[in-house]
Specification:
By secondary structure, the chain is α/β, with parallel strands linked by helices. The protein has 17 helices and 15 strands. About 40% of the residues lie in helices and about 15% in strands.
């Protein structure tokens, strides 16, 4: 079968395969901050694949941990047992999460972790005497995953409409960027946007609302970065109306924002934390849902009570994945790489801002640490930037009106200079 025929028989994420097959990008290997395609062309990976490879590709410590685990066991029987390494992973995660977030269920991907958080929340309220609390409030432009529950919580327009109708019980409010031109300041705008959650809860009846779920920094809307006060208001609203606060940190977790979790960056602890992507630095699929201790205790009881968490996945807590995850955590913690993220962000952000401003197309730079987004003042420029970047050997996260970077925590200043040069060259090509 020819390559074109093969490409027509598979799907690359969000790509029209007729078009992709005309000039396909087929990667062959990766190392550190770089990919190489099968023709030997090198690509600077400015987003860790897709916000995943936080330690770069094929980090030696992670590879060695996986090799050791492969010699012992790569799968445990999920209906009968848990592996020793999965238990170690649970302990490791609980040791780095803020507050009392220490009830851990590992999964294979962020969508699974979010789906579990939604199911966990509904079951929690059902078996603690509040069965009518089932609704979730999230944000437009938010993205929580591709499975049906996670997609219903998302607010990403055309990514959702092809699959409607969605699950009932999911409500949306706009993010603060939606209102920014209507207020004199960003702080005031964020206060208004945060209070919109309360308006929905009150008008829906608090006795029917189970949780608020948000990304601390919203990717699909263009690295939307609210104020710390915004999250403090959300925390107060949730406490007032007996509503759980869920942070989807699949992208923001594991050092990117200048702390281990964005919850710490913004100084607000959620009731449930969903993590993924960087948790294994892309070495193997891994994610986790982490709940507050007292929430988890509501699932303990005798067999006849039938209150165990009614949820599972075949590869949840996979031993090989857990070994990789522990190696990633150890590397970040021992080297305090969240501090490195903050250093790199201080180096990169002003240079990125200056580079785009010099070309007259900058509206705003947003983000924390190494997770940064650039919004264009020229609408639609991203349509030309993405192919121009690939032609220059650069992988970015690009939308029509913005692009994002999230280089590995192990990056050097020299590599940041290389990244800036590639972005400048790509912008010039896109604008030419």
């Amino acid at each position: 079968m020819t390559e074109t025929e093969l490409l027509r028989r598979t799907f690359v994420d969000f790509q029209q395969m007729e078009d992709f097959a005309r000039n396909p990008l087929v990667m062959e290997r990766a190392e550190g901050l770089y990919y190489w395609d099968r023709a030997g062309n090198r690509y600077f990976d400015a987003i860790g694949g897709i916000f995943v490879a936080c330690l770069g590709h094929r980090h030696p410590r992670v590879m060695e941990a996986m090799r050791r685990q492969m010699d012992r066991m790569t799968f445990a029987p999920p209906l009968h047992a848990i592996s020793d390494v999965a238990l170690e992973f649970v302990d490791k995660i609980a040791g780095i999460t803020p507050g009392r977030l220490n009830w851990v269920k590992p999964f294979s991907g962020g969508s699974e972790a979010v789906e579990a958080a939604l199911k966990f929340t509904r079951q929690y309220y059902k078996q603690t005497g509040r069965p009518h609390k089932y609704k979730f409030v999230s944000r437009y432009f938010g993205y929580h995953g591709g499975t049906f529950g996670a997609m219903a919580a998302s607010g990403t327009g055309t990514r959702k409409t092809k699959f409607e109708p969605h699950m009932p019980g999911f409500l949306k409010v706009p993010p603060p960027t939606y209102y920014r031109d209507r207020f004199s300041g960003w702080d005031e705008c964020n206060r208004f946007a945060a209070r919109a959650f309360e308006d929905v809860i009150v008008n829906e009846d608090p006795e029917t609302v189970a949780a608020i779920i948000v990304e601390p920094i919203g990717n699909t809307g263009g690295i939307i970065t609210p104020t710390a006060e915004y999250f403090q208001i959300l925390r107060e609203i949730c406490d007032r109306y007996d509503v759980l606060l869920i942070f989807d940190e699949v992208i923001t977790g594991f050092g990117k924002t200048g702390r281990m979790f964005a919850a710490e960056t913004f100084g607000v602890t959620p009731d449930i934390l969903c993590v993924g992507k960087g948790i294994s630095s892309g070495a193997v699929p891994l994610a986790a849902m982490i709940a507050r201790e007292d929430l988890g205790e509501a699932f303990l009881g005798p067999v006849q009570a039938n209150i165990q968490f009614m949820h599972g996945h075949t590869f949840a807590g996979n031993p090989l994945a857990c070994a990789a995850g522990m190696a990633v955590i150890d590397e970040i913690v021992e080297n305090r790489l969240w501090e490195r993220a903050e250093e790199l962000g201080r180096y990169l952000r002003p240079r990125l801002e200056s580079l785009v401003a010099q070309r007259g197309v900058l509206r705003e730079v947003r983000g924390k640490g190494v997770l940064l987004g650039v919004e264009f003042s020229r609408p639609g420029l991203g349509h030309r930037l993405k192919p121009a970047a690939l032609a220059n050997g650069l992988i970015l996260r690009v939308d029509p009106d913005w692009f994002a970077v999230s280089p590995a925590l192990i990056s050097t200043e020299a590599q940041m200079d290389e990244l800036l040069e590639l972005i400048g060259r790509s912008l010039d090509a896109a604008m030419g």
